[in-house]
From TrEMBL:
Pfam families: MFS_1 (PF07690)
Main location: membrane
Assigned GO CC terms: plasma membrane
SUPFAM superfamilies per the UniProt record, alphabetical: MFS general substrate transporter
Residues annotated as domain Major facilitator superfamily (MFS) profile: 9-400
Entry keyword Cell membrane: yes
Cellular localisation: Cell membrane
Source taxon at top rank: Bacteria
UniProt keyword terms in alphabetical order: Cell membrane, Membrane, Transmembrane, Transmembrane helix
UniProt topology in membrane: Multi-pass membrane protein
Transmembrane segments: 12-36, 42-64, 173-195, 216-239, 251-270, 282-303, 309-334, 346-365, 377-396
UniProt cross-references to PROSITE patterns, sorted A to Z: MFS
UniProt protein name: MFS transporter
Length: 443
């Protein structure tokens, strides 16, 4: 896996990702402390609304930002988004009112909604070999999990030396260094045709390709399954550990570390596993495992109380492993489902639609825990995950071939596509594009 860092462009981009993640981790800790200073006991409400604004920016602005950015140089978009994030973080130490937090976080997350899909769509162009790209996805998964584990510890260390406002300075430095690394990297440009389409088509093209492709419709349903169980872990672990087990901050850190360790274990195993198995059975298996674990654990909590601490940690590690098994291969599906010039739009569609799932499951996890108890909430979210698995199995049937026999009754007989493939009826690797606007239902 580490061998792909020999590619200098990917090495620079991966370093940019890691450094930006560390900056984001410091921002998360600093923002919580800032909210408490400004709102006291209402800090949770402030942070909850800030997270909601983050999801609204991700869902609503990502396709719009991508449609606008298509006409701009790819490197300029990435560096510009990092510059905006750095400027916003630089403003945070001077915030004196709660509403200022909301405005700044919305602007920062809007920049992230521009940066992240564009960055993700760049990596397949840097690593065109599928095996190398799979290793890159696993390495990115490891980076996210390590950031979740190490950034809070790094922030705690800094807080023993300086005030929390300096955490925002660390965030600024993270985004500045990230932008410099992207600026120095040999980022491949977008295809010339991508920016020539009308704005309305650029705005909707990614969603249209996504929803017309069976494997991507299945991916959206599997995103729901993963986010349902994942939301329970991220929202309710603190309550389970502190109230259920009587644990302290270290116990909470250990529980989240177990979840992260399971996810990292999957990231290490998946590259070799995906050399032997197709994406669908791996992702379906992970999602089905999440359903089984959530329903069994929810029933046990409802009727028998919390299990022992060691069992709880093992279950959280298992959930982390299954969660990563669903999400890590998703980039392979996106890469396979669009031409290079359409990948930014498709990655932006995935970014928006997957976060739409979180926009539903995050509040559900919180409200259900209050109304149904922890066991009932986990069962409810397990049933949401089951719904996602059932929908995925229906809309993404097993055995779909990459090369599909199909016809083109709508194209003129002298069309270049027909000449290139030997007539109206032919077979090739099928993706949705200008010549293939719907998925063939039969050969």
């Amino acid at each position: 896996m580490i061998a792909i860092l020999n590619n200098p462009t990917f090495r620079a981009l991966f370093a940019a990702q890691v450094i930006a993640l560390v900056g984001t981790g410091l921002l998360t800790v600093g923002l919580g402390l800032l909210a408490y200073d400004l709102a006291g006991e209402r800090a949770g409400v402030v942070l909850g609304l800030a997270l909601t604004l983050k999801m609204v920016a991700y869902v609503g602005l990502s396709p719009v930002a991508q449609a606008v950015a298509t006409r701009l140089p790819r490197k300029g978009v990435l560096v510009g988004a990092d510059a905006v994030r750095a400027l916003v973080a630089l403003c945070l130490p001077f915030v004196s009112e709660v509403w200022q937090i909301y405005v700044l976080i919305f602007v920062l997350q809007s920049a992230s909604a521009t940066f992240t899909p564009a960055f993700q769509a760049t990596i397949p162009d840097v690593l065109p070999d599928e095996a190398e790209y799979t290793r890159a996805l696993s390495l990115s998964r490891l980076a996210y999990d390590l950031e979740n584990l190490l950034s809070p510890a790094f922030a705690a260390l800094l807080l023993t030396l300086v005030g929390y406002s300096w955490l925002f300075v660390g965030t600024v430095l993270g985004f500045v260094v990230s932008g410099l690394l992207v600026l120095l990297a040999a980022v491949p440009p977008l295809g010339a045709d991508a920016g020539q389409r009308p704005f309305r088509e650029r705005l909707t093209r990614g969603i249209r390709i996504y929803l017309a492709t069976p494997r991507l419709r299945g991916l959206w349903a599997l995103n729901l399954a993963a986010s349902a169980v994942g939301a329970f872990v991220l929202v309710n672990t603190v309550v389970l550990v502190r109230s259920g087990y009587g644990g302290d901050e270290r116990s909470l850190a250990l529980a989240m570390a177990a979840f992260g360790a399971g996810s990292m274990g999957a990231a290490l195993i998946l590259p070799r596993l995906l050399e032997r198995m197709a994406d669908r059975p791996v992702m379906m298996g992970g999602a089905q495992g999440l359903v089984v674990v959530a329903l069994i654990m929810g029933a046990l909590i409802s009727f028998g109380g919390l299990p022992g601490w060691t069992v709880f940690l093992l279950v959280w590690a298992m959930i982390g492993f299954l969660y990563a098994s669903v999400l890590t291969p998703s980039g392979r599906l996106l890469r396979r489902s669009a031409h290079a010039e359409d990948r930014p739009a498709v990655f932006a569609a995935q970014f928006a639609l997957s976060h739409a799932c979180w926009l539903v499951t995050y509040p559900t996890a919180g409200w259900a825990a209050q109304g149904l108890g922890m066991g009932g909430a986990l069962v409810l979210l397990g049933l949401m995950a089951l719904l996602g698995v059932v929908v995925a199995r229906v809309v993404w049937p097993a055995g779909l071939k990459r090369e599909i026999v199909h016809e083109h009754p709508d194209l003129p007989s002298d069309h270049p596509h027909l000449r290139a493939h030997g007539g109206r009826r032919h077979a090739h690797v099928f993706v949705i594009d200008d010549e293939h606007r719907v998925w063939p239902t039969q050969g």
